[in-house]
Each structure stands twice: as structure tokens, then as C-alpha cells.
Design a protein that fits this description.
Number of helices: 8
Order of helices and strands: EHEHHEHEEHEEEHEEHHEEEE
Strand order of the largest sheet: 3-6-2-1-9-11-12-10
Protein name: aspartate kinase
Structural class: alpha/beta
Catalytic activity: L-aspartate + ATP = 4-phospho-L-aspartate + ADP
Oligomer: single chain
GO molecular function: aspartate kinase activity
Helix content: 25-40%
Distance between the termini: 33 Å
Organism: Streptomyces ramulosus
Shape: globular
Number of strands: 14
Bound molecules: adenosine-5'-diphosphate, aspartyl phosphate
Strand content: 15-25%
InterPro entries: AceGlu_kinase-like_sf (IPR036393), AKii-LysC-BS (IPR041740), Asp/Glu/Uridylate_kinase (IPR001048), Aspartate_kinase_CS (IPR018042), Glu/AcGlu_kinase (IPR001057)
């Protein structure tokens, strides 16, 4: 049995049908005997729509109020997905970031996680429930105010929770099959990587690969969290991110093999081994603290893709 943190991005929960599919997937992991903690992003383009709404009532939205508006997107998606899991007969409970113990710095719209105190999440796991945590948000440690973490912040929520809970793996479940050498939506020659080091992923994220938020990569490197980026829509394995290249295990291509992560059994990607990017050094990614993608001004898309 493993402790798995699963994060589902906005496209993966973009409709009631997709929420039900995610719920079934979460229940399957639970039925396989794993402890599962889930982080869900806001449905589809909700964050854009909320930004737009704020821009329509104020030319310069008050950052504190804007954060309260935006956090609602993730709270709705998490409560709905928890509801869908409960409807499948497995107890689930959703938490806001502040309730889950995600503590941050003060800066509205661009706060950093400084600590995670996941007492309520552990209690829920002990009760046999599946806890859901609203991504992209927390509570300022100094002021107690609700904050958001910058665009793409749910990745950081999931990886920070995985570190705090000493999870075996953090699965980032998204709308592509894993991390590619370039954006597979715009570059037909992009190749799927079976493994990336933190350092290589940091470079990709810094160059704009949205599949993992830059800050989340640094958080994973700092705490040594093993991250598996994979599709929400099928069960094939994707890309594992860790400190150093994983030795190739002899197994038929494409098959999933059992491997041990932090001492417990977790079905990770098949051999195929490491495929660091050209010029990428193994390591923990060091470097200066990254900037999160800040909140885009209302009425712009912030350069993010349209909802799927
Ligand atoms: N190198 C890359 N590998 C994989 N995906 C990439 C890469 N560069 C950009 N992307 C884009 O990242 C998107 C996934 O990130 P994002 O939209 O934030 O997902 P989610 O909504 O699941 O959080 C993909 O749809 C893809 O177009
Ligand atoms: N909903 C927020 C947070 C987030 O992480 O979203 P996603 O996981 O869909 O990239 C955003 O749009 O930035």
C-alpha cells in the first residue's frame, strides 16, 4: 500500500462527466489499497471567468477580495469531486487550502507556501476517508488572510502536501500523456520523456512548459518528492520526475512494472529509463527561487490554453 497524492488539472474536471470519471479513478486507486489524497483545480476556464468578472465590477480589483473570489473556483471543484466519490460509496471530504493547513506568505495573488500542517488530512485518512484539498490557495501565516499561489498553483499545493505527508508519490494527472521535449500541442516532433530530473524539468518549466508550474518543480526538488506526470484520461504511465536518472528496468515497452518508491510498493512507469534532456545535469534544480505565473489582468487569458 502506498500513500499517493493525486492532482487533477482544470481540463480534467472541466464538466460533470469528467468529474465523475476522475471520481471513478480516485476510487479505483483507493480500492487497490492505496491511501489517496486528492488536489483538484478549478473546472475548465473558471479562473479566467472569475478574473473577468472581477474586471467587470472593478477596474482595479482589491487583491484581497480577488483572492477570495478565485479560491472559490477550486473549492467548488473539490467539493463536487468529493461528492461524486461519495456517490460511488467511498467516504470523501473536501477541505479549503486554509482548512488543510496550507500556510503561505502574505502576497495576494502570488503567495508562497511556507509550511503545510496537514493534521486534518491525516485524521481524514485515519477515518478511511479520501481527503480532497482545494489547490492554488492557502492562509497567510502572519495575517490569517486567504491567499492564492499564482497561476498553476495547484501543482505546488499537491507537491507541498506530498512532502508534508511523506507520500510515496505525487501524481500530476493532466491532459497530455506526460512531459515532452516540447509542447506536444504545437510541436509534432515532441517526444514523451519517461524520466526527467528536477534540473531538466526546471529548464522546461522556465521555458514555458505549463505541464508543471516552475515553483512546484523547485518544491519537489527541495523535499525530494517523486512526481509522476501522467494522463487523466487513461492508465498508461507517463513521466517520472526525481533527482537522478532511474536505471532502466528490463520490461516490455509500455508495460507498467512495480517499483519501490520510498520503501513502499507503487506501480510506476515501465523501464525505458532515464531520458534527460540534452545538456541537462542531474540534480535538485537549485537556482534562484522561481516566480510563479502572476495573476493575469482580468479579461486576458494570461497566455494559457483554452479549456478543453
Ligand atoms: N514540454 C511539455 N510537455 C507536456 N505538456 C506541455 C509541454 N509544454 C507545454 N505543455 C502544455 O501543458 C499543458 C498542460 O498544462 P496545464 O494546462 O497547466 O494542465 P492542467 O490543467 O492539467 O494543470 C498541455 O496541454 C500542453 O499543451
Ligand atoms: N485554477 C488555477 C490553478 C491551477 O493550478 O490550475 P490548473 O491546474 O488547471 O493549471 C489556474 O488556472 O491557474
Amino acid at each position: 500500500m502506498a500513500l499517493i497524492v493525486q492532482k487533477y488539472g482544470g481540463t480534467s474536471v472541466g464538466s460533470p462527466e469528467r468529474i465523475r470519471r476522475v471520481a471513478a479513478r480516485v476510487v479505483a486507486a483507493h480500492a487497490a489499497g492505496h491511501d489517496v489524497v486528492v488536489v483538484v483545480s478549478a473546472m475548465g476556464a473558471t479562473t479566467e471567468e472569475l478574473l473577468q468578472l472581477a474586471g467587470e465590477v472593478s477596474p482595479d480589483p482589491v487583491p484581497r477580495e480577488l483572492d477570495l473570489v478565485l479560491t472559490a473556483g477550486e473549492q467548488i471543484a473539490n467539493a463536487l469531486t468529493a461528492m461524486a466519490v461519495t456517490a460511488l460509496g467511498v467516504p470523501a471530504r473536501s477541505f479549503t487550502g486554509p482548512q488543510a493547513g496550507v500556510l503561505t506568505t502574505t502576497v495576494h495573488g502570488d503567495a508562497r507556501i511556507v509550511a503545510v500542517e496537514p493534521r486534518r488530512i491525516r485524521l481524514a485518512l485515519d477515518r478511511g476517508e479520501i481527503p480532497f484539498v482545494a489547490g492554488f490557495q492557502g492562509r497567510c501565516r502572519e495575517t490569517g488572510e486567504v491567499t492564492t499561489l499564482g497561476r498553476g498553483g495547484s501543482d505546488t499545493t499537491a507537491i507541498a502536501l506530498a512532502a508534508a505527508l511523506k507520500a510515496d508519490v505525487c501524481e500530476i494527472c493532466t491532459d497530455v500523456d506526460g512531459v515532452y521535449t516540447a509542447d506536444p500541442r504545437t510541436d509534432p516532433s515532441a517526444r514523451l520523456l519517461r524520466h526527467v530530473t528536477y534540473a531538466a524539468m526546471r529548464r522546461l518549466a522556465a521555458d514555458g512548459a505549463e505541464v508543471l508550474a516552475l515553483r512546484s518543480v523547485d518544491h519537489a526538488a527541495r523535499y525530494g518528492v517523486t512526481v509522476h506526470v501522467r494522463s487523466s484520461f487513461h492508465d498508461r504511465s507517463g513521466t517520472v520526475m526525481s533527482a537522478s536518472p532511474v536505471p532502466a528496468a528490463p520490461s516490455p515497452a509500455g508495460r507498467t512494472v512495480a517499483r519501490t518508491v520510498v520503501g513502499r510498493s507503487y506501480a510506476g512507469p515501465a523501464g525505458g529509463g532515464a531520458e534527460p534532456l540534452p545538456g541537462a545535469a542531474a540534480g535538485n534544480g537549485g537556482g534562484p527561487a522561481p516566480a510563479a505565473r502572476p495573476l493575469a489582468p482580468a479579461h486576458t487569458s494570461g497566455g494559457r490554453k483554452a479549456p478543453g
